[in-house]
Amino acid sequence: MGFLDRLREGLSRTKQEIVSRFDEIVERADAETGRSKPIDVDTVEALEELLISADVGVAATERIVGAVRARAHRGESLRDLVKAELLAIFRAVDTPSQNGHVPQVTLIVGVNGTGKTTTVGKLANLLKASGKKPLVCAADTFRAAAVEQLAIWADRADVDIVRAKDGSDPAAVVFDAIQSGRARGRDPILVDTAGRLHNRANLMSELDKIRRVAGRAAAGAPHEVLLVLDATVGQNGLTQAREFTSVAGVTGIVLTKLDGTAKGGIAVAIAHDLKLPIRYVGVGEGIDDLIPFSADDYVDALFQQKW
Amino acid sequence: MFESLSTRVQDVFKSLRGEVRLTPEHVETALREIRLALLEADVNFKVVKAFIDRVRDRSLDQEVLKSLSPGQQVIKIVRDELLALFGDAEGGLQKSAPTPRVVLLLGLQGSGKTTTAGKLGKWLTRQGKHPLMVSTDVRRPAAIEQLSVLGTQAEIPVFAPETMDPVARARGAVAEAKAKGFDTVIVDSAGRLHIDDELMGELQAIKDAVQPSDLLYVADAMTGQDAIKSAGEFNRRIGVTGVVLTKLDGDARGGAALSVVSVVGVPIAFIGSGERLEDLELFHPDRIVSRMLGMGDVLSLIEKAEQAIDKDEAEELEEKLRKNEFTLDDFRTQLRTIKRMGPLESVLGMIPGLGNLKELAQNKPDEKQLGRVEAIISSMTAAERRNDKIINGSRRKRIASGSGTTVEEVNRLLKQFTEMRRMLQMIGQGGMPGLGKGMKLPQMQRASGAASGKKRKKGGPWGLIKAR
Fold this sequence. Notes:
The complex is a heterodimer. By secondary structure, chain A is an alpha/beta fold. Helix content of chain A is about 50%, strand content about 15%. In chain B, helix 1 runs antiparallel to helix 5 (about 70-85), helix 3 (about 45-60) packs across helix 5 and helix 5 packs across helix 12.
């Protein structure tokens, strides 16, 4: 089942579907009468509304709208122009994730409540299904029962877990996990870290320490750092991405909770401004509900106005 | 990263310096900046639209256009309207409730319900209450255990029955509370999507079973445009009596709060402001408003000026400026007004453009200096104060000895006064002065002029958008 099918399935729970003003206008503009005319004010406004309501943000919206406006007179379909513009942003950052390291160490980071632990569980399951032997590391020693939560996921995905001893330092757990993974022939190693707000200097320096210690346990580690973003996040998502990138060297985004009505459009601004690709998207609570990101499907989904 | 709203609006009006009269078009430019700032703060765009219309109506008031500092006037209107939107309703729980009071926490996944349950328990304990907590989250792995751990940390009993039926767990907790004499039951629920019929049905069943007096919708302060949909739907299907805004210790502007309040029409009850169990506070609208606008001190200044300045006095001054009749008497009145506003240093710090602390440290305003200036003026005769041109050499000597200063100081003051009057005259004629050496006093003048505008009309809370 593809990305769009899953997304559609997730969305099918809602009985209400309201065709957006944008769709109406796009259809009108795409109809033969509107085709070769420059975009009128109404259309631009509707376009802005669509992007802003998807949390793309004012700056990115202005850029996209500006680009579309500049080309509109050529008689192309407005819908296609906007999609092309969005796709171009994602394509520009679509670099393959780093591979070839054994064991590959992936840190999962983000602010509180975005779904890091759930993502680690689902990702372990996805990687195992692709024939790998992942090991998960529970380095969230702060939140009550976070380790237990990951242990349950590890059990569901049938993968090994290295857990923190009580009161231990998260960086030490990561070190143990990498050693243990190497000894047991596990690869990749997925590290669940505690949620932390990016403006808390002490917590961010803890992340920096985890990173340094991981590098000591395995050359070049962490090889991938995934920032988990809640699709409902607003403009603060860009600040989060910027801060986590500067401290932890984020290499990609996981966009979770896309089965709701939020679109996570800030990822567009992140892709453009910080050149960070979206790697995976979370579309439900089940263990299979994490899938690799597809720019085409995502852009399609942006235009499928639900509600 | 975000340019604060107040700076933006100030800049708009600054660029208009030299324009003889402000026009509705200028206001429109400022409104555009306000719109952008609100959108960047994640206020829902529909809410922004309605809000801007409201601010436009008030800003086009002639009093605002004609005032000496239209920028600050417009900002004040924005702030008043934001506060009106949040309303006077106090935060906290419902005033009355049957015993035991049942509080149900609900919301999307990851908004912070379980953490809030622990914090709320702690808060209730501080109020002298005896809460019992129960988790009905049988879906998220280890959610029940998380609440147990929080209960241990907060020293609050947690009801943990065998059954994995959410409704039965909630009902059991209420029965337990009745039997054992707990006065409050905090029911934590599983995070769920507002479009998930099955789980929304489950929530309804829990509500029906325990009849909570408080239904607290837990919302992440970092939420974007979607806040309006989820909160609205939870309210429509289940009902919400208050909002708990979490993760406010981050640097998000928290505009979602405004969206939620205007859509759901209920007050924000609590805010979560840190990782410790103690970090739950009652909500204060003014704080979030200042945060959204990034402008705390400008507002305090306007408030202070409003308190210190007599409206008629200000109008009289404007009239004098227009007629070029500004005298040393008026100067002294102005000095006294400024002194009434509080320590000079803090007042200057509030003035936009002077807020830069580094500059202030280098050029520290001297409170004593103000007193000496006042003494010099007070040592003049009434005739001298009315007409400074008659102050010749021997009069200066008398004034200096009368005020315990030197002739040099008297000379300096008179020179500054002449310069200042020239600049004020320009303001009085509608132009804006170039800010050169003598910027301090004209700046103060503008600040006090800010308050000369009309008092805010009483605007009740107004519904923006009732449904989605």
